[in-house]
Every structure is written in C-alpha cells, then in structure tokens.
Amino acid sequence: MLRGLYTAAAGMVTQQRRHDTATQNIANLNTTGYKQVDSVSHAFPDVLISAMSGGVTKPVGRLNTGVFAEQSVSQYLQGDLIESGKSADFALSTDLQVEDPDNAGTYLAFDGSGKYISPDGEVTYRPQAFFTVQDNEGNNLYTRNGSFSVGPTGEVLSAGGFSVLDSNGNPLRLTGPEDTLKVDGQGNLINNATGLPSGTRIGISVITRPQELVRDGNGVFHADDTEAAEIRYSNATDNLQVRQGYLENSNVDATQVTVDMNAAYRAYEANQKVIQFYDSSLQKAVNDVGRV
Questions:
Q1: Vertex 143: Cα angle to 181 and 186 (nearest 5)
Q2: Where do the domains of the chain lie?
Q3: Spatial distance between the Cα atoms of 96 and 104, rounded to a whole number of angstroms
C-alpha cells in the first residue's frame, strides 16, 4: 500500500513542475526573444516482481514505481518579428540547414519543433543563431533579445547591460551618436559617410547543437562546453538576416501552454485524491481493524 503512496506523491511533484513550467511560459508571452520551455517527464525504472513459494521463485511481472520531471527543454523556434522603428533594435531571421550525411546535396527535413529523427532514432536539432554578448567576467552569452542601447562612450549594450560583441569577439563600439548605428542584412555596420560596410560586423553566433545551451534567465544562454555545442561566428553562406528596427517576439504557443497548465492541474488533483484514499485506508486500518 505504501508503494502506491510514493507513486502518487511522485506524480504530484512531477505535475507541479509541469505547471510551474507552463506558468513561466505564460508569464513571458510578451518577453522579447523568449524561448518556450517544455517539461519532459520519464518513468522511474520498473521493478521486477516475483512470487516465492516452497523455495521456488516465479516471476509475476513488472511494476512501475512512478514518474519524475527529468528536464526542461527549450524550443528555439523563430518568433514573430515586430517592427519597433528604433535604430538600436535588431532581430534575427534564420533558416539554417544541415546537409544530410547520407545524401550529398540534400538537407535534413526538420519537424515543427526544430528536430530531425533519423531512421536509426538519432536526433538532430536545427542550428540556431544568437547575438553574442559578454558579461563582466568575460564569459560569452547568447541571446535573441536584440533590444540594444549605446552607452556614453559608444559601447553597444544588450537589454541586460552586457557588452555586445563584434564578429572578432571584441566589444562593439561606435564613434558617433546612436543614430549612426546602421547595419545591412548580414549585420555589417555601415559607414555613414560612404554608405558602405565599415568592416565591423555584429557578432552573431551560429550554434550547431543548441540543445547544449543552458538557460541563465533574463533572455540569455551560455554553453558549458563550447566544443560540444559547436559554436562559431556566422559567415556569408549562412541563411540568416539581420533586421534593424525590429524585435523578435516570444515563441510561446499561448493555446498549447494553457492546455498543458490545465492538464497538469487535473493530473495533480487526481494524484492528490489517490493519496487521500490511501490516507483514509490507513486510518481505518489503525483505528478500526485494530479494535477487532
């Protein structure tokens, strides 16, 4: 009987985490560059039940011992681009492809969640591009929030106050006022006097394995292992475009996360009733059966 209590309690914890994840997504519906988070649940290892009689053991079957929320997975799908009209606002429009290793000249067909599953079950995620920023400790961070500003000495700063990097990994600085911040579709800064690229480009990192990124909050991510994430700066062959005067909206699917939140609440409630049932049964066993 107690095993059922533990299983129901594990279910309640899992559903609470699912509910928390859904409410986090809803709270960030209008957060620039926010990427939806999905909670992934898995079952605990099964237990093999056997019956022993007269020194002979006979297998009865397997017993599931509950479920747990193993991890939270970020969805890096493109969000809608919203025009802001501000020269220091930028958005990335990307459609990065991966060549099929089994068919030269063709590309993997990613599904709606941005992943491809091979016939062998191997999962490949669509590469993603991010603006590259740097914190005060010199750590590189990655964000899709292109709401930038220009500091008093010409340094370009992210919404979180981090230094925006150029394609050489150096802090991006301007020599004129904010209205001189002009870029082309590839992120090259334009010289106002000549109207031509100045030779400096906004640092846009292409991350081949975005599943290796770790969410830091405030719209930024970091990579514990940059080699495993396969991070590089973008080049002219990458299918991406920088849109000045635009911001990328959150990619949260409001309808789906609302359904997920309600489903988690109902499942939590069902597990709660199971625990109440076990509690009532134990109470009868202690108070009533003992008297007989």
A1: 45
A2: 2-74+252-289, 81-248
A3: 17
